[in-house]
Amino acid sequence: MIRFLDLHRQYEGIRGEMDAAMAAVLGDSAFIGGKYAQEFEQAFAAYQRVPHCVGVANGTDALEIAIEALDLPRGSEIVVPAYTFIATSESVTRTGHRVVFCDCDPRTYTLSVPDLARRVTARTSAVIAVHLYGHPCDMDPVLELASAHELKVIEDCAQAHGAEYKGRRVGGLGDVGTFSFYPGKNLGAYGDAGAIVTRDKALARRCRMMANHGRVEKYDHDFEGRNSRLDGLQAAVLSVKLRHLEAWTERRIQIAGLYQRLLDGAGPVLPLAEPWARHVYHLFVVRSPRRDALQAHLKAAGIETAIHYPSALPMLKAYTSLEQDCSSMFSVAAAGEVLSLPMGEHLADGDVEQIASAIRAFR
Ligand SMILES: *Cc1c(COP(=O)(O)O)cnc(C)c1O
Q1: In a 3-state reduction of DSSP, which class is residue 231?
Q2: Is 314 left (phi over 0), alpha (psi -120 to 50) or beta?
Q3: Pocket test for ligand 1, best of 56, 61, 159 (most atoms within 8 A of CB)
Q4: Is the CB of 180 under 6 A from ligand 1?
Q5: Which residues, at least 6 apart from 217, have a Cβ–Cβ distance to it below 8 Å?
Q6: Mutate to test the pocket of ligand 1, among 65, 182, 231, 331 (most ligand atoms within 8 A of CB)
Q7: Per-residue b/e over 152-169, b at no fewer than 16 CB within 10 Å?
Q8: How far is the CA of 261 from the centre of ligand 1 (A)?
């Protein structure tokens, strides 16, 4: 059986370090915030090459807090790709704004800049660029468009730890970047965790206060915020894993190269990395018009796969009241064809070879 993801095996490989790090937090009773959270924030900011990092409770909160901290006009429109995880659009609605969907690029599945340009109106205040599957969005034209229309740019980097656009790491390209450390992400905690990164010191401070009841010190609340703090145990777990992240990411890139070589001409449409991109392959997503049959064929061969995502957001029940007609979008068609193959440092070359021959044997 070839697993889609194998967090247990990953833990086995770092058990000594991990158990010691968790024991240290317990020994210090440093459960919320504190030195372990601070250490991780500094290390992660350095890793993403951005000056400020604020740890929060999860990636969805990171998006909501980032949007709130930007102080956009109430009820304004925020453009979101139609193809992403629902947290991206939820954060818009939950902060009192209106979701406007734009299509994704059929080559990289990140937002289509020409379609984004069509969606911008006088009421648009921001755009969320999602670096989906680990491939960065084409940020220069997004930033150009944003600057021409005075839009804020939020980068949803939940799937793109360490990804680079023209040599620059994601998160620090727009006004603010958000990360998720959900266990299955490229950098994952042992529970929920997230972070906000930015080059703007004042914005970072506002995010930190917002995530901690509107305060800096114990009871000097400047405004009503919320509780969305990074806890010490998760921070310590993340600090341990961060030390391995580059090696794990390089292995993902190697596996992607192997897939590309072995699956060339095999049938399914393979993912593409733009020449300016460091794609970190959170997911290796292929496309086939016979996706369901291919998935069943691989399952019978003992190969786990997954679908990200079975429906474009506008087609979900959650968006039945949406006025925008998105039915002709590529995102909607893609949902019926995409298949995520196993990806991660748990795979041996032999596993990838086995997966590739199973795909080649599919008729
Ligand atoms: C995982 C994910 C999120 C949400 O992160 P959580 O930590 O699960 O709240 C947001 N956006 C994208 C694109 C994601 O993949």
Answers
A1: strand
A2: alpha
A3: 159
A4: yes
A5: none
A6: 182
A7: bbbbbbbbbbbbbbeebb
A8: 30
Who contacts 284 (Cβ-Cβ below 8 Å, separation ≥6)? 133, 255, 256, 259, 271, 340, 341, 342, 343
How do residues 143-181 score in pLDDT, each as one tens digit? 999 999 999 999 999 999 999 999 999 999 999 999 999
**Over 122-158, what HEC string results?**
CCEEEEEEECHHHCCCCHHHHHHHHHHCCCEEEEECC
For the chain, the residue count is 363
Cβ of 156 below 6 Å from ligand 1: yes
Strand bridging mode 124-130 / 77-81? parallel
Token duo for residue 193: 């965790």
Residue 69 pLDDT class (50, 70, 90 cuts): very high
Report d(CA 12, CA 117) in Å as an integer: 48
Cβ atoms of 84 and 157 closer than 8 Å = no
Of 132, 104, 101, which Cα lies nearest the Cα of 119? 101
